[in-house]
Amino acid sequence: MSQDIFVLPRYHLENYFLDAQTIASCFKDIEESGSWLLDTKKIDQTLREIARDRLNYTTTLVASQILRKSVGNVDIKPSNLQNLTISELVDAAGDISVDQLQRIKDVLSEANIKNVFTETHSRLSKLLETDTDDWKREFPAKQVFRIFCSKAKFQEGRLKSKYIMT
Asked: What is the mean pLDDT of the segment spanning 133-156?
């Protein structure tokens, strides 16, 4: 029996609830004409402002993930170990561990961390400034959506339900 696994290309499930057109549709029978909740441009602007306020938080999450992936696993298993004495095995593992430690120190160096954080912040800032929805894939939308619901004075679970039904 084969099972297919699909990885959704968004940070949180809530990232799928940030479409301004759909949000406006959710409010069409609830809000009076002229409400900002019916204006897709104002909804998108509000979502971007909320995300912009979380730029440093998002930078930290994304940069940490990049660094974590760069460090990866530590493997100190020597090759051809079956013919080694315990002393040779310990020495070989020790030599490999020195290399692994240097690799980790390089990834977690102050210069590399500064570079990763700076590049990540710049990239995320540009995503918010462009007239696309690309930022909605990377920012942790759980907080963005929750704050939007608060600004809209609408329960988060209820808006999610309406969004899904729309």
From this structure: 95
pLDDT for residue 2:
62
User: 43 with 159: CB under 8 angstroms?
Assistant: no
Q: What is the 3-state secondary structure (H, E, C) of the chain?
A: CCCCCCCCCCCCHHHHHCCHHHHHHHHCCCCCCCCHHHCHHHHHHHHHHHHHHCHHHHHHHHHHHHHHHHHCCCCCCCCCHHHCCHHHHHHHHHHHHHHHHHHHHHHCCHHHHHHHHHHHHHHHHHHHHCCCCCHHHHCCHHHHHHHHHHHHCCCHHHHHHHHHHC
pLDDT tier at 105, thresholds 50, 70, 90: very high
- Average pLDDT in the 29-48 region? 96
- Judged on CB neighbours under 10 Å (0-12, 13-18, 19+), 42 is middle
pLDDT at 112 over 90: yes
Cα–Cα distance measured from residue 19 to residue 136, given in angstroms and rounded to the nearest whole number: 9
Tell me the average pLDDT across 115-121: 98
